[in-house]
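Morning run. Coffee first, then this:
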Amino acid sequence: MRSLLCLLGLAMLLGGCSTAVLAPPPPEEPRPVFLLDHGHHSSLVLTTASDEMIRYSYGDWRFYALGDSGSWQGVRAVLQPTPAGLGRKALPGPPTKENVLRQVLVGIEQLFTLQAESAAVDTLQESLDLLYARGTDTLVYNPTFDLEFVRHPRDYTLAYNSNTAVTEWLTSLDCTVSGRPILANWQLIDKTSGLNTPP
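And here it is:
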């Protein structure tokens, strides 16, 4: 029991440090992207060429997709690799911060807006949608998170959770992320000015 508490304490300690996200250089063809900090986990909202939005999230399958939020499930997900899910939800435009806040039904502690190159956004969206399409035979809707989940091929672990998945997605958009957060604790910095960008 003591070792378990130490492990959980270590996770909290590692997650307590803020993770800096350096926004991409000014894109030639900008497309807004929204980083959502839900407290312990994160999700990302991408926008399409037609000004619609799609929200993506990664997490433990039983917890996020099936809604098994018992204490043992949380411990199990920390102690060993567990099956993971990819969540997806299409949201009508326009792609604005206010519209995201109005349509996302789960709590948002912070919402960050950045501008990424349209081609990079399209590439990321296509790769996530391909993963999603491959798992549609496992599709399940969880109203708590207001997302449709399919099984993701990569296991959920303490070292690879929703926040580290979002880190990978941001990196593919030419963001520079200083670290791999265990818990969501983001700070967005503008590359051109070096200043913190308010949520």
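The mean pLDDT is 84. Good start to the day.
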